[in-house]
Amino acid sequence: MELLGSTLAATYAHPRPTPASFLPAISAMASSYRDCFPHCNLTRSLSLPWRPSTYYKAASNSPALDPYCTRSQRVSESTTLPFVSNRTTLFTRYTPDDWYRSNLTNFQESNTSRHNSERLRIDTSRLIQDKYQQTRKTQADSTQNLGERVNDIGFWKSEITHELDAMIGETNELTDIKKKLERALMETEAPLQVARECLFHREKRMGIDLVHDEVETELLMEVDIILCCQERMKLHLDKAIAQLAANRASQHELEKDLSDKQAAYRIDDKCHHLRNTSDGVSYFRGVERVDAMVSVPESWAKLTDDNILRSQSERAASAKLRDDVQNLLVVTANEMWNQFNKVNLAFTSRIAETADAKNKIQIHLAKTLQEIFQTEMTIESIKKAIKDKSAFLKVAQTRLDERTRRPNIELCRDMAQLRLVNEVYEVDDTIQTLQQRLRDAEDTLQSLVHSKATLEHDLAVKANSLYIDQEKCVSMRRSFPSARRLAGFC
Fold first, then answer.
1. How far is C-alpha 460 from the geometric centre of its chain's CA atoms?
2. Among residues 35, 70, 64, 40, which one has the least CA distance to residue 52?
3. Could you say which of 14, 348, 463, 464 has the lowest number of CB atoms within 10 Å?
């Protein structure tokens, strides 16, 4: 057997020697007469032109039959030909040279036909073997190509599976951080409500205590900080929702590509393991002319590579967003907690100041009450003194009046008269002085009473402020969420 791909030397290039004797096959003789052996015009009688032509017509119709092989055929020939004279028969017969030459021609034609048939048979056998080897090689190449294709699909399938697992994990982590962000955003509502209620309650302060103090400033700042934190959380929440949509879109493309790869892997693996003896092998006429392909290896690999690169890009963006959200939760929790502590410190300081002022007011009120009591006692003593001086004035005036009824010359301006007059003036002046002092004492008492009313009102204002700051505001702020809850942890 010649090796596949070697140069084949045609058999007919080296003709074999002719054997000494042979009997040509009927089929070979028929083939030689029909195709290869040229027509040879033998000499025939000019007087009977229709006799030889009759013979040749019979030979051409049955070239495999030799008209001179048997006696029966000669008898048959003589019976089919019309009767002729002996002289005519002698003139229509061929010469021995023609007979030998005809046999030699037939033998040569048979030998040539046999050689041609042998060459054809050997070349056909070699052609069959070569085509078999070529077909086997072509099938082996196709099987190898299918195996390489299966390996390529398996490689990209593993890459897609790895990337899909990473994308699913990243999506789950982003979903967790999104839920944490939503919890943190919900936790900010309570501190915001507390801060606003504190501001609302502090609007109920009265009088001078309705002041824009440090507590109110810090509360307003706390409201602004919480609102700012909420805005940043909502912005990152929207980004997380959009990123989740992008992740799911990329994941969908990967899953679709993976599904296609798995189907193609099953089909190509089945094709790779198909053999000539496999079940299900059949003819599908015209399938080689069907061109339903939509891609080439470069575009096929590029699509999967683009899907993986897109997924990796989305994963990187998702990881960065997760880090940003985590940092945001820590920063916002610290900001709100620090401001919460500042507000509490301001409340503590303000409550201490208000309590101190209240204590001082209570001390002043006690002193004022004591002074009012003393002033009232003084007024009573002044009134008693005035009352006591009225008796002295009455006596002195009665004496002067009685002395005006002395007769004549007895109406003397003596020392007694002068002293009585002076006594009246002195007592009257003393009464006037005491009455002025009584009015002053009463004015002082009124001032003290006014001061007392002011202190009592101020004391009520301070008590109301202390109640609002200490009982309402500070008690509500005890429910402020912890830093972990503000960071989104349960």
1. 61
2. 40
3. 14
Neighbouring C-beta atoms of residue 305, cutoff 10 Å: 12
**What single letter denotes the amino acid at residue 245?**
A
Residue 117 · residue 29 · CB < 8 Å: no
Closest CA to 323 of 334, 313, 312, 315: 315
CA distance 285 to 397: 162
251: nearest Cα among 304, 301, 311: 311
- Tokens 């798995």 belong to residue: 262
- Pairwise CA distance, residues 62 & 311, whole Å: 84
Nearest CA to 268 out of 176, 381, 149 is that of 149
What is the model's pTM? Answer: 0.65
Give per-residue burial for 37-58: e unless 16+ CB within 10 Å, then b. beeeeeebeeeeeebbeebeee
Q: What are phi and psi of 277, to 5 degrees?
A: -100, 5
Contacts of range 71-75, beta carbons closer than 8 Å, 24 or more positions apart: none
Question: What radius of gyration do the chain's Cα atoms show?
Answer: 70
Torsion 214-219-224-229 (CA) sign: positive
C-beta separation of 153 from 295 below 8 A? no
Contact 225, 335 (CB under 8 A): yes
User: Helices 189-202 and 214-272, interaxial angle, to 10°?
Assistant: 170
CA 245 to CA 175: how far, in whole Å?
A: 11
Residue type, 38: P
Q: How far apart are CA 207 and CA 194, in angstroms?
A: 24
Q: Are 247 and 318 in contact (CB under 8 A)?
A: yes
Q: What average pLDDT values come out for the chain (490 residues) when binned by 10 residues?
A: 40 43 40 41 43 43 43 43 48 79 92 93 92 91 92 94 94 94 89 91 88 91 94 95 95 94 92 87 83 85 94 95 93 90 92 92 92 90 83 76 75 76 82 87 91 91 91 84 67
Q: What's the rounded Cα separation, in Å, for the pair 30 and 384?
A: 183
| Residue in this structure with the two tokens 């990337």, named with its chain if needed | 163
Helix (H, G, I), strand (E, B) or coil at 251: helix
* Distance separating alpha carbons of residues 383 and 389, to the nearest angstrom: 10
Q: Are 477 and 196 in contact (CB under 8 A)?
A: no
